[in-house]
């Protein structure tokens, strides 16, 4: 009856039925192909993509599952294999993928890799995952020439984190559920006598950029700090809580930080149950075009005197190919909403809307393909922003 629906296991561990007990995780051939293309494009520009799928609680800690899990179709061997299959397919497609499941299974579950009444990993789970990712990084040829920095991690104090899942479960339980409590950690440069390392700062030249979900962004996890400790590489954390599977990486790769100072390693953390095909091709077009950044000179976007938030781009003499996306950019990095009206030669109009939600960073840059709009040659585009952008707007055609 709780949301999400869950079952209670041993020692107060709760498992979500739909995500934690799932035996199949959507990773289509098209998704594998998109990840392989993204990896290849990033590599061509000097960045190695490391995809890090986070195992579910049942894959990492099966010992605490109740016998009733079998009634929902759960089989331990199949759960483990479903994760490994995804990693194997990614590696076969030349995507550098980190196996986070194996070290967690090898660890003793009583170490508390995930919280009892929440789906996030604890600092111990984050540490194991970070060590596995660091091993993958150190195995890459480009690691040898990366600037190394010694880091140390110290234990702070125990903190209690807010958990929506725990609150929802508590409504159906007489006894108080285990608090989402974990020891906090702090990672600093080894030569620093005081002060903490700003893992969320704007050091765009750090060798590692981390994008991901609340797993990477959780205060108690110290995930980025552990990666720096085990890899000896400085890291900037761009993870976003509640940004879904694409929010963080889209926010980062459409930013000026990424285009002007690409990292040597880009770690993309994502829970294994996140379906990378859920939103169709739109996010992939943006990621691939941003990674390639092979764009033609800017086309003139003329502002309208009576509508300062609208601009018109003449395309009558521009040929658009199927492998091109439009990049709309404005220096105003607070713009979140863009609507495009495409005027076709046959008199029809097609529209596309793009919205950067509150959970995403506004970067002032949008990518979208014209081919789905092209029922006839496109004569012009009208760009409609949510408000007048400071500094105007420009448009380029980018291959992807």
How would you describe this protein?
This protein is an alpha+beta fold and 400 residues long. It contains twelve helices and 18 strands. The protein has helices at residues 17-20, 29-44, 57-60, 76-92, 101-106, 123-138, 164-170, 214-217, 223-231, 244-253, 256-260, 282-292; strands spanning 6-8, 14-16, 48-54, 96-97, 151-160, 181-189, 208-211, 235-237, 265-271, 294-295, 302-304, 307-314, 324-329, 337-344, 349-355, 365-369, 378-385, 394-399. The chain has a five-stranded parallel β-sheet. Residues 193-204 have low confidence and may be disordered.
Binned, the helix content reads 25-40%
Radius of gyration: 23 Å
Give me the strand/helix succession.
EEHHEHHEHHEHEEHHEHHEHEEEEEEEEE
Indicate the structural class.
alpha+beta
- DSSP helix count? 12
Shape: globular
Distance between the termini: 46 Å
Widest beta sheet: strand line-up = 4-3-9-7-8
The count of DSSP E runs of length 2 or more, i.e. the number of strands, is 18
Overall residue-averaged pLDDT value: 91
- Poorly predicted ranges: 193-204
Beta strand %: 25-35%
The protein's oligomeric status is: single chain
Features:
400 residues, alpha+beta, 5-stranded antiparallel sheet, 12 helices, 18 strands
Topology, element by element:
Elements: E1 6-8, E2 14-16, H1 17-20, H2 29-44, E3 48-54, H3 57-60, H4 76-92, E4 96-97, H5 101-106, H6 123-138, E5 151-160, H7 164-170, E6 181-189, E7 208-211, H8 214-217, H9 223-231, E8 235-237, H10 244-253, H11 256-260, E9 265-271, H12 282-292, E10 294-295, E11 302-304, E12 307-314, E13 324-329, E14 337-344, E15 349-355, E16 365-369, E17 378-385, E18 394-399
Parallel strand pairs: 3-4, 3-9, 7-8, 7-9
Antiparallel strand pairs: 1-2, 5-6, 10-18, 11-12, 12-17, 13-16, 13-18, 14-15, 14-17
